[in-house]
Amino acid sequence: MNAQTERLALTGAAGAIEAARDAASLQGGTAPRGVAIIAHPHPLFGGTMDNKVVQTLARAFNQCGWTTVRFNFRGVGASAGAHDEGCGELQDLLAVVQQVAPQGPIALAGFSFGAFVTSHALAALWGEREVAQAVLVGTAASRFTVAPVPPEAHLRTLVLHGEQDDTVPLSAVLDWARPQILPVTVVPGGGHFFHGQLTLLKNLVVRHLQSGP
C-alpha cells in the first residue's frame, strides 16, 4: 500500500497467515485509536488483501488514527490451507485479532465475502472486546448467512452498498438489515467494486469514523 507497509507472518489453525500492517496517520505525540482488522472479498474469485476496496478501507482507517492490518484468508497468497466457505475464514480473522491486537480497542471491516465473515467476528467478539467501529461494504447477503449486528453496535456500524451492485443485489442487503432496523448507506449508481467511486467510498468511511463513539 505504501513504502511503510510492514509485512507480517501470523499463524492460524490452517497454518501461516500472510498479513500487512500500516501505521496510523498521527499528529505528534498522539497515540493510535486502536487496531482495525480488514477482511478481503471471496478467495475463489480473486479476492486478496490487496483488493482496491480493502486498501481504500485501510487508508480511511489510517487517516482517522487507526493502525490497520489486512490479511489473506487461508489458501490465498502465502496463507496456508484451503477455502472453507467462511467457517475457517472466521477462525483466521479471530486468530489475526488475537495476535495483532490481544488487548485494547479494535475495529472490524470487510468487503463482500469479507463483510460476511466480519459480521460473524463482530458477533463473536462483541461483549468480550471493545469493538469501537465496524464497517461492512458490499455485504454478501445474497450468497451467505450474514450475522445480525448486535443492537448495541448499530451506531458504531456503517453498512455501505452500491445501488447498482450486480454481484450482491441491494435488495438482499435490505432484507438482511430490515428486521434489525439497521440503516444502510446507499451509493447512487455504485457497483460492487465502486469503480470510479473509491474516493467517495473513502470519504464516507472517514465521516463515519470521525463521528462515531
UniProtKB/TrEMBL annotation:
Q: Which residues form the AB hydrolase-1 domain?
A: 54-144
A single Gene Ontology molecular function, please?
hydrolase activity
Assigned keywords, A-Z? Hydrolase
Q: Which InterPro entries match?
A: AB_hydrolase_1, AB_hydrolase_fold
One Pfam family name is Abhydrolase_1
Tree of life domain: Bacteria
Q: Could you tell me what this protein is called?
A: Alpha/beta hydrolase
